[in-house]
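During data preparation, we tokenized the protein backbone, and the record follows.
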Amino acid sequence: MKMIHCGDIHLESPLSTNFDHATALKRRNELLVSFIKMVKYAADNRMSAILIAGDIFDTPDVSRETLAIVMACIMKNPEITFIYLPGNHEKDVLLRAFSEMPANLKVFSAEQKMFVVENVVVAHADRPEELPTLYPGDMNIVMYHGEMDDARIRAWAGRNINYMALGHYHSYSEGVIDPRGVYCYSGCLEGRGFDECGPKGFVVLDFENNTLNRYFVPSAVRTIHEVIIDVTGLGGIEKIDEEIEKRVDELSREDMLKIVLKGSYLAGDSINTGFLQQRYNSMFFAVRVDASGIRLDMPEKDYRFDKSLKGEFIRQVMVSHDLSEAQKQMVVDMGLRALAGERL
């Protein structure tokens, strides 16, 4: 028997923070496409259940069209049991959508904390002490939407848990509860912003001979790749661009790219992030350049006797009594980038 563990799908997320209107609309539709693809994967591979560890939706105000598609995915696959733990974003949207609850949709509530799929027990509790009794001879899964720190791991230990199907964090990760059990965040199906880089997908649980095996299945329509460039000693935008170009050479142009600049640069170096943004926007679906981690290195010899506008600007800032050292560096940094023609 096999199951899928997924979560944090966040259908109808606005995505307006990271993308323009047209791009955000396309990405919202791609979130829905990813959900449909996952259900089809489950059907094609004869999965017994899909465990949804919270936040199918990003909001309680879901459009009729999106609800209709999600409902159709459930009703058209009666051989798959959908076990749903409501998250902190959606309230009871899915429950209210159905005039009559389909037999293959199981929703955890204050009254219903356990379901059985074939020979596997699937339970839920917000706190370990509220967990229904799990027996050592059973294969036991616990679904939980929230954080697992060291104290919580210790609290869940010793309760005959084989696998904790977690939601809330948007990247895949796993850890050990006790000698018997593990916990796992499946992550989200699609990265919704440039803080959600890397592979996204779901986890397949494979039960055979009272043994549980698991593996991660990447399934995103588009991946957000992060490229980190240390600008120290590179000497300006041309070399930075060369380094980025080498790093992105084998990436799909249908994906998204986050360029992170770090390190220090000299006053004579050109750090034109606007150029990088425009250049790589033309190559990828969407791009963000993050230059918050770079700093200006200003040896006094580089500006003390410089008779240019740049040198005079730096000298005036550096003799100011109204600015801290950190503020002086920030003002010089912004000023030099403006003088280089960069849009700030």
Q: What stands out?
A: The CA atoms of residues 262 and 294 lie 5 Å apart.
